[in-house]
UniProtKB/TrEMBL annotation:
Pfam families in the record: Pyr_redox_2, Reductase_C
Superkingdom as given in the UniProt entry: Bacteria
Domain Reductase C-terminal, residue spans: 326-419
All residue ranges annotated as the FAD/NAD(P)-binding domain in the record: 9-307
Organism per entry: Catellatospora coxensis
PANTHER family given in the database record: APOPTOSIS-INDUCING FACTOR 1, RIESKE DOMAIN-CONTAINING PROTEIN-RELATED
Protein known as: Ferredoxin
Cofactor (UniProt): FAD
Biological classification of the source: Bacteria, Bacillati, Actinomycetota, Actinomycetes, Micromonosporales
Gene3D superfamilies per record: 3.30.390.30, FAD/NAD(P)-binding domain (3.50.50.60)
InterPro entries: FAD-oxidoreductase/Apoptosis, FAD/NAD-bd_sf, FAD/NAD-binding_dom, FAD/NAD-linked_Rdtase_dimer_sf, Reductase_C
A single MF term (Gene Ontology): oxidoreductase activity, acting on NAD(P)H
Cellular component aspect of the GO annotation: cytoplasm
Record keywords, A-Z: FAD, Flavoprotein, Oxidoreductase
Length: 422
């Protein structure tokens, strides 16, 4: 039998890209696999950047998807520190910096996302940090551990902003969080759980400024020293951490003429509008048959599972990517996992198994359920209660399939979770 001369190119040496390459080899693909990434680092997982690594608990290598030698052992060609500049779908080529061209039989876009930046006067001052890559986390950790400890201003009250705030408080820094919303994480979790996270951070010494943003920064000798808010308030700040969201890195897809709508549009098999190009991870807006909608998910689990699914699809498997969205966070003594999808208008109310209130400043042990008006579970969150994710995911799958739960049994800790469906 002749050797497989096909070339599969993966743009994005990320968690998703590395998992796709791994899946290709696991599925028996013996052609060339090129894994191209802008960073010099071998592919790694990003959650530690705002969690264990930032907090000084985990070594850098713990986040690596595979050791460097694994790629050579599996005949995967790592091309690190290289930028993909253009894709020519007709010629099936990718142009890299230095005018190098690589040809492909199949291409995977795992280009991830880019941080949204602030466009206000003074935003280029030293001491203003964004968090997306290892050098960002290293620089932020050095700044947070400087003596004396800096006065920290966090702009944004999403997951990244709150995890940075928690890390900063762990180092003993005074922290203020500024957000245009009326509560942290409200746009993700709703008012009920937002109240819990607000109470948690306030119990740990964080001050919030709600309903406002930053209009400008003041500096001294090029380094940030203050921030002026939209309401005219001036706050001292020696260190600013900005967490105002990310956007999908769709530039290559747009240049190549692929369908793009809040991400690179794919079908349930992660195939784009071009029959030879796939997309996965943060950059992909994929049809999720479970939820019956296109969804772009900016979390670790999607990169991990989506990369594997894309690799299988490229290898010729019949893939239907129908993951229950999942994410997690660790803040102070609170550890939580969330599964499902409950955006504004997708649910009617939240019910709890346990008391969601803090006791003596300590976070609770509780499970929250997001219910529709006909009692279907569309999302669930376990806080400081472990080994229940399989059951919660099953409830969410049942909910999206049309099976309601019994709210009285959901909120009764004596009833096993699988027995809460009607």
């Amino acid at each position: 039998m002749s050797a497989d001369e096909r070339v599969f190119v993966i743009v994005g040496a990320s968690l998703a890209g590395a998992r796709a390459a791994e899946a290709l080899r696991a599925e028996g693909f013996t052609g060339r696999v090129l894994l191209i990434g802008q960073e010099e680092e071998v592919p790694y997982e990003r959650p530690p950047l705002s969690k264990g690594f930032l907090q000084g608990k985990d070594p850098r290598e713990k986040a690596y998807v595979h050791p460097r030698e694994w790629y050579a052992e599996h005949d995967i060609e790592l091309m690190l520190g290289r930028r993909a500049l253009a894709v020519d779908p007709a010629a099936r080529t990718v142009t890299l910096d230095g005018d190098e061209q690589v040809s492909y039989d199949k291409l995977l876009l795992a280009t991830g996302s880019k941080v949204r930046t602030l466009d206000v006067p003074g935003a280029d001052a030293d001491g203003i940090h964004y968090l997306r890559a290892y050098p960002d986390s290293e620089a932020l950790r050095r700044a947070l551990t400087a003596d004396p400890r800096p006065q920290v201003l966090v702009v944004g009250s999403g997951w990244i902003g709150l995890e940075i705030a928690a890390a900063a408080r762990g180092y003993g820094c005074p922290v203020t969080v500024v957000t245009p919303d009326r509560a942290p994480l409200r746009h993700v979790l709703g008012d009920e759980l937002a109240a819990l996270f607000r109470a948690l951070h306030e119990a740990n010494g964080v001050e919030f400024r709600f309903g406002t943003g930053v209009s400008s920064f003041g500096s001294l000798d090029g380094a940030v020293r203050s921030a002026v808010l939209d309401d005219g308030t001036e706050l001292a700040a020696d260190l600013v951490a900005v967490g105002v969201g990310i956007r999908p890195a769709t530039e290559l897809a747009e240049q190549a003429g692929l369908a793009v709508d809040n991400g690179v549009v794919t079908d349930a098999g992660l195939l784009t509008s071009d029959p030879h190009i796939y997309a996965c991870g943060d950059v992909a807006s994929s049809l999720n048959p479970l939820l019956d909608r296109h969804l772009r998910t900016e979390h670790w689990a999607n990169a991990r599972a989506g990369g594997k699914a894309a690799g299988k699809a490229m290898a010729g498997q019949d893939v239907t990517y129908a993951q229950v969205p999942y994410f997690f966070t660790d803040q102070y003594d609170l550890g939580m996992e969330y599964c499902g999808w409950a955006g504004p208008g997708d649910y009617d109310r939240v019910v709890f198994r346990g008391d969601p209130s803090l006791r003596d400043g300590k976070s609770p042990e509780v499970i929250a359920f997001w219910l529709t008006d006909d009692d279907r579970v569309v999302a669930a969150m376990n806080i400081n209660i472990w080994d229940v994710q399989d059951d919660l995911s099953a409830l969410v799958k049942a909910g999206f399939a049309g099976t309601p739960a019994d709210p009285a049994r959901l909120t009764d800790p004596s009833v096993p979770l699988p027995a809460t469906l009607r």
